Automatic annotation (TrEMBL):
Residues 56-372 form the Glycosyl hydrolase-like domain. Residues 1-21 form the signal peptide. Keywords: Signal. InterPro entries: Divisome_Glycosyl_Hydrolase, GH, GHL10, Ig-like_fold. Coiled coil: none annotated. SUPFAM superfamilies: (Trans)glycosidases. This is Family 10 glycosylhydrolase.
Length: 515
């Protein structure tokens, strides 16, 4: 079980006096501007403005399967693929998003150089064909340059979009181990009931964590396949071997739980700071099936695809859950607000963080009049903000973010994302605040400072003309999170700069004046 969730540091820190810069305490009120050493006022004197949360995850899914988001078309040149990805990140950065969830393994394939699984067809158009470059370092670096976390998104059980092992590239795991697979609904799946499958999936994920500088490992909502009318998922042989007297449904859920726990352990053993989270289907169970379920009437992930998110939360085998709540407020079968409250109650008292999966792709859909309202998405973010347990949101998907249907993301940005935000903290992942930036100075409008050991990025705050306290308590004065030790100020005034480690623990602040 993980340790308790963090409480933001509010310790009073003294002012370090120099002729060029002053140092202030992290997550605490700014000290006096006088050139004397004084204690910061008590943390209670600083009240955060709820309109500008200091820490909030704001992400976007970038789906590679079937070229949904990126690459926009299979077989493009590396330069075109890079340019298209940069466009996505620039669009996200413009809206002050701070995380990307990039699908690196759509179906037992790889959008990175792997000795375990073949190159993805979505890069070249041909499964197994070398694209001539390894995209993953570029994808990660470009995210980090913009102060964004990079979560590597894996589909654990999908082996192929077809159901023929013979059609797969030579050396494909499903072709080498056809006994691992189950044909279902015209597709090929790895059997979750086999220990060898769990070992393979864990090995694939650990390989990525070991070799690449990812910040997170992410699963979507596909576990056992979604039901197909008239089809049977034939795992009877595995059930006879490993069922040990359990009921089939119980055994299947147990298989998923085992994989989740195994991946969680492996990821944190490899690199403690890497987050592991899952984006389950939005309904765990309905009240009709379980009195502790939600007041909804949709498909139950627990019963239909054997995904027991409550078990992961209770066991602490995930760092976050990101339920896909792709319904509008007031939906008769699955009301958005009802589900946000249900999930908030589920994580309450745990150290598992809660983000909400937003159905941006649904905006403008004519099958539900609620989605024809330009303000629905912004209103949903407002519902999130009303819950203390919700630590952020992730939007599906990148092409919809760029298309901005009904200008809905303009409304979200204006109402809720007008300022950047740091990422939520979780003490169980380690990390600590780096040293404050050194040698801070201003040359005209350009601020610069010496890199801090252990810092991956820096937060820049602009002190308002009125008021001398609490500038770093929330994000109302936060103007940028930058990866390089410099920033070009847009106007004259006083600025504060802090160092952030990779998990965005924050240092003391250094004060710099721009004339």
């Amino acid at each position: 079980m993980r340790t308790g969730r963090p409480l933001l540091a509010a310790a009073a820190l003294a002012v370090a006096t120099t002729t060029a810069a002053y140092v202030f305490g992290p997550e605490s009120p700014a000290a006096s501007e006088k050139k004397t050493t004084v204690a910061a006022p008590p943390a209670a004197a600083c009240k955060a403005d709820a309109r500008y949360p200091k820490r909030e995850l704001r992400g976007v899914w970038i789906a590679t399967t079937q070229n949904i988001d990126w690459p926009t078309k299979a077989g493009q040149s590396a330069d075109r693929q890079k340019a298209d990805y940069v466009k996505i990140l620039d669009s996200a950065a413009k809206r002050n998003l701070n995380a990307v969830f990039v699908q690196v393994r759509p179906a037992s394939d790889a959008l990175y150089k792997s000795s375990l699984e073949p190159w993805s067809q979505y890069l070249t158009g041909t499964a197994g064909k070398d694209p001539g470059w390894d995209p993953l370092p570029f994808l990660i670096d470009e995210a980090h340059k913009r102060g964004m976390e990079f979560h590597a998104w894996f589909n654990p059980y999908r082996a192929s979009y077809g159901d023929s092992t013979a059609a797969l590239p030579a050396g494909h795991p499903a072709r080498r181990h056809p006994d691992w697979t189950v044909k279902y609904g015209g597709r090929l799946y790895y059997n979750p009931g086999l220990p060898a499958v769990r070992e393979h999936v864990t090995k694939v994920i650990t390989d990525v964590v070991d070799r690449y500088d990812v910040d997170g490992v992410h699963f979507d909502d596909y576990f056992y396949p979604y039901p197909v009318a008239g089809a049977k998922f034939d795992d009877s042989a595995a059930f006879r071997t490993y069922g040990k007297g359990e009921k089939l449904a119980q055994w299947r859920r147990g298989n998923v739980n085992k994989l989740v726990a195994q991946v969680d352990k492996a990821v944190h053993a490899a690199k403690q700071h890497v987050k592991f989270g899952i984006s389950p289907f939005g309904i765990w169970r309905n009240k009709a099936q379980d009195p502790t379920g939600s007041s909804t009437s949709g498909m139950s992930a627990y019963d239909s695809i054997y995904a027991d998110a409550r078990a992961w939360i209770k066991a602490g085998t995930v760092d976050y859950v990101l339920p896909q709540l792709y319904w509008p407020r007031g939906h008769k079968l699955a009301d958005y607000t009802t589900l946000v409250r249900w999930w908030s109650d589920e994580v309450k008292g745990s150290d598992v963080q809660l983000y909400i999966g937003q159905g941006l792709y649904r905006v403008g859909a004519k099958d539900d009049k609620a989605w024809l309202k330009a303000g629905e998405m912004a209103a949903q973010v407002g519902v999130n903000r009303a819950s203390k347990q919700v630590d952020g949101a992730v939007y599906f998907s990148a092409k919809n973010l760029m298309a901005n249907p009904l200008r809905s993301m303009d409304r979200v940005s204006k109402s809720y994302y007008s300022r950047p935000a740091l990422l939520p903290l979780n003490d169980s992942l380690g990390g600590s605040a780096p040293a404050a930036p050194g040698g801070a100075k201003a040359d005209g409008s350009r601020l610069s400072w010496q890199p801090s050991e252990g810092a991956r990025s820096y937060a820049v705050y602009q002190v308002p003309k009125s008021g001398k306290d609490c500038h770093t308590t929330d994000a109302r004065n936060l103007v940028a999170v930058v990866s390089e030790p410099s920033y070009t100020a847009k106007s004259a005034g006083t600025y504060l700069v802090t160092s952030l480690d990779r998990l965005q623990h924050e240092s003391k602040a250094v004060k710099v004046k721009v004339d």
